[in-house]
# Entry
Amino acid sequence: MFKKTTVLIVLTMSVLFAQNNYPIVLVHGFIGWGPEEMVGYKYWGGFWDIEEYLEEKGFNVITVSVGPVSSNWERAVEIYYQLKGGQVDYGKNHADKFGVIQKPSGKIYKGMYPEWDAEHPVHLIGHSMGGQTVRMLDYLLENSFHADSLNTQYEQSELLGQSHSGWIKSITTISSPHNGTTYFDVRIKTLPFFQNFIGLAAVIGSDFYDFDLQQWDLEQKEGESWQDYYDRMDNHAAWKSKNISTWDLSIDGARELNTVARANPNVYYFSFGTSVTHLDKQTRFHVPGDKVNVALRIKAKWIGEEIAQFSDGTKTDSTWFENDGVVNTNSMWGPTTGLSGPDKIMKYSSDETLLPGQWYTFGPYEMDHYYVIGQAIINKKQREMLYKIYSNHCQLLYSLPK
# Structure
């Protein structure tokens, strides 16, 4: 009893003497879900709950739920309104360009952090595509956007019509495809992604999982047969546009984001890398090791031997082979493929004074793409090891100056 009480006091004191206590916002990745979905199986923690654990340690944590297959633009807009509150507004120009509903009636939020502003910023943590999404959010906050292609007037929304500098203190990405993932270029372009997605929808059902596609007008209507619903979804233009996750996760889509969403000189950046493959000396490819989930083994093998091509004709090389079963490890450290040049990236060291505007990397950890967020963890020892990583990093975030 004495030992537990002492540990609790030490943890509480460490939070009390932190430099800041800004909310830590967790953002899921591609095909992710919110805390109230999947019958309690947590995206952040699986059978356990990372948010709950961190809150018990004294951290202020918020978990958002955004479109699992939507574009980074739409996902970032949704984060803003879920935190700040109000009617989601994707922007008139965006809605006109991609044929989506600008202000979906089903997306109005009370606000989980309505006081959010430059005096009350947040720490953003994104897993996988969530890392791209939080960078997009910073881009949207820092800029103002026009409502028409002729640039004659600005958007009327709070988010897009004006800049909001200083609202983000730090960005942390976990296993994120900053430069895209070759899996999406080589495999998703040839595999029937849409059919697989619809199959998932049929199996899971909307009672357990929200596809958040109100802006596409793709909610199944009352009395609509599954076949009619499938046909209507199949014919939607969004699947073939750049307003979709599969484009954003491709190497060309990521390059497009990297070109405009450069590192903000006022934001602290951290990235965690993961890997479950190793070099096969005979083939010179990367092959999956023992610690990769069986469901990811074949994907790890594919990524470990495939070359993808950018639209300008340049190709990836063998440095892209190492991966965690979904994302190439060298894509996780930070954006490097933007046409304006790479962000500054360096290995984290506790001896170095942290500076905003550059990336500090951790890892690679020997974990697959989902193990790192607590999914597929089967015993207490594994859970405690992972939780320690999260707790230590959140303590680092709270040590940043106000």
Observations:
- The first helix runs from residue 2 to 16.
- Residues 1-14 have pLDDT under 50 and may be disordered.
- Residues 45 and 52 are 9 Å apart (CA to CA).
